[in-house]
Amino acid sequence: VLLVIGQGAVLEGAAPRLSQIVPRGAQRGTEVEVTLRGERLDDVQQLMVYEPGIEVLELAATNDKELKCKFKIETGCVLGTKHIRVRTATGMSDLRTFRVGALPEITETEPNSEFATPQAVPMNVVVNGTIGNEDVDYFVVEAKKGDRITAEVEAIRLGDSMFDAFVAILNSARFELSTSDDAALVYQDGIASIIAPEDGNYIVQVRESSYGGGNHYRCHIGTFPRPRAIIPAGGQPGTALQVAFHGDVAGTFSKDIQVPADIPWEYAVLAEDERGISPSGLPFRISDLPNVIEQEPNNDVAAATAASAPAAFNGLIGEPSDIDYFKFEAKKGQVLDIRMYGRQLRSELDSVMTVHNANGGGIASNDDTGGPDSYIRFNPPADGQYLVSVRDHLNRGGSSYHYRVELTPVVPKLELSINEFDRYQEPKLVVPQGNRFAMLVAATRRDFGGPLEFLG
């Protein structure tokens, strides 16, 4: 049999394609009807939710391009992103996200594109909206003097499109009180926060940063806390720990937390007070290293915070031109990996890290390694005292410039990865039960050599 395919013909695969989930999120402790859109969905068999806390009560295909389902979201469901796939009789869909929040959900209602005609919304809600080309959405809330007002947008974090959101809080005279394009904590999403200077109405503005067309967004508007930094930014598994939250417009506050005993792939701490809970968490490292927290003033060699190695040094570049020093003892031949966790923890800090001798002379320094964070492999030339200093590359500083420096012995590591099948697309392996699938695995050896043997 000879099959001839004309030039330009397209052969569609049998695997399902999931392109959209609406709504883009829901409040925990509720049941919500959800629509999933895509292609080749009519033979659906399962909706796979990778994180606990969401039960699929109903699931049915309307046609080959749409599914209708009902979610039951547990009251204790962890806030944040959940990952979803559709499994059909012919394959597995790509991954899409669904956000779980703490506040009641409402829908943006047009017309609300003029400052003079904003949509009135109550405090402490999540607005689900969309932005078109050159579109601007306005919302008005009522507040009392001294109230905290925060607007946090989820746009690019939804994963629908390159929606670079801008958010602002304005007073009734149209003066901007707080604006945000990109906040490091929330990637390219924005956070605007104020303490209301007087009783009255306040306007929240949401748009695409360059007035281009966006897509779906979720805007959390309320009195909840929204700190930008946590210190320490890590802890030992299974331990109780007090952390300090920095960067909230109402001031710094502390909270006792319990660090999970089982180390998850990623972990974040949610800030909570009597006025609410933050919509998203602050990334938090879990490791066996003891914490050392900077003791100000530690801006020069003589005032360096005393520490030891191995350990984790935690601190805050609290103002422009700030520099923090830590001192520790090391022995000749005691090779250490000194790794900065700043931007990896969604800090604003673009670090420069330097190792000094006891007199402050520089031995090794690094700005960026594989990203904005610094890394130094340090082989002490002699027994004695050494120092590590941390500053921002542009000598900036503030309440969102927190960091964690981990000093660890060098240990062998093996990193395994799967090559991309399609550029910029996640590798996806669908292996029917009882079958096999051949794939190429890339193995990267760190500080060891020799052949590898895979058992399984």
In words, what does this structure look like?
This protein is an all-beta fold and 456 residues long. Helix content is 0%, strand content 47%. The chain has strands at residues 17-22, 25-27, 31-39, 44-49, 54-63, 66-73, 80-88, 91-92, 96-101, 105-107, 119-120, 125-130, 136-143, 148-154, 165-171, 176-180, 191-195, 200-208, 216-222, 229-231, 234-235, 240-246, 253-258, 268-269, 272-273, 276-277, 282-283, 285-286, 291-293, 305-306, 311-316, 324-330, 336-341, 351-357, 362-366, 375-378, 384-392, 402-409, 413-418, 441-446. Strands 2, 4, 7, 8 and 9 form a five-stranded mixed β-sheet that branches. β7 and β8 (91-92) form a beta hairpin.
Distance between the termini: 41 Å
Poorly predicted runs are 1-12
Question: What CATH architecture of the largest domain do you see?
Answer: Sandwich
Please identify the top-level CATH class of the largest domain: Mainly Beta
Share of helical residues = under 10%
Briefly summarize what is shown.
The chain has strands at 17-22, 25-27, 31-39, 44-49, 54-63, 66-73, 80-88, 91-92, 96-101, 105-107, 119-120, 125-130, 136-143, 148-154, 165-171, 176-180, 191-195, 200-208, 216-222, 229-231, 234-235, 240-246, 253-258, 268-269, 272-273, 276-277, 282-283, 285-286, 291-293, 305-306, 311-316, 324-330, 336-341, 351-357, 362-366, 375-378, 384-392, 402-409, 413-418, 441-446. The chain is an all-beta fold and 456 residues long.
Question: What structural keywords apply?
Answer:
456 residues; mainly beta; Immunoglobulin-like; Jelly Rolls; 5-stranded mixed beta sheet; 47% strand
